[in-house]
Amino acid sequence: LQGYASEMDNPNLVHLIPSALQNKKEILFGNLPEIYEFHNRHVGTGGCPAIFLKEIENCIENPELLARCFLKRKEDLQIYEKYCQNKPRSEALWRQCGDSIFFQECQRKLDHKLSLDAYLLKPVQRITKYQLLLKEMLKCSKNSEGTAELEEALATMLDIIKSVNDSMHQIAITGYE
Asked: Where does the UniProt annotation place the signal sequence (predicted)?
């Protein structure tokens, strides 16, 4: 977001932006700002910071609490569905403009080995990694405290992934209202 999306508003680089990309930042990046905001939001009670990652890290000592982190954010995690639905449009735009001088310059300034499209894939990969984490936790915690919550959290993540897949298939259907 900082090294590419914000650079699209940089007056010194605007002349390097391909015409096909003009006014299409929201197509390329989808709701990535919303996902970023979710992962940086403080929603703790009593003024305690409760960023999602910090809550997960706090479960190292109490792994039985991990499921609650996911269950508490069941609705929030659905923002990934919107991101995935936009992904085909984003990829089409990237195929059209990805080799432009603008993106090469941004990548050079950031000293990134990978191009932007690799980073735009990360949210899609993350949503599947969550369910793998929960599956692994479940394997290690059979019949212990928190197992039922882990099963519920895993079911929640699998529902979100199924919803993403279903909506992706619906988007792929063309020629019908």
From this structure: none
Q: CB–CB of 88/164 below 8 Å? A: no
The domain limits of the chain are 4-172
Q: Which fold has domain 4-172?
A: Dbl Homology Domain; Chain A (1.20.900)
Which 3 state secondary structure label does DSSP give 103? helix
Q: What gap in Å lies between CA 129 and CA 141, rounded to an integer?
A: 18
pTM (two decimals)? 0.83
* Pair 100, 16: CB distance under 8 Å: yes
* Cα separation, 98 vs 4, whole angstroms: 12
Is the pLDDT reported for residue 158 higher than 80? Answer: yes
**If you average pLDDT over residues 81-106, what whole number do you get?**
94
Cα 1 to Cα 32: distance, rounded to the nearest angstrom: 8
Tokens representing 51 are 């960023």
Query: Is the Cβ–Cβ distance between 46 and 55 less than 8 Å?
Result: no
CA dist list (Å): 52 to 26, 43, 157: 25, 9, 15
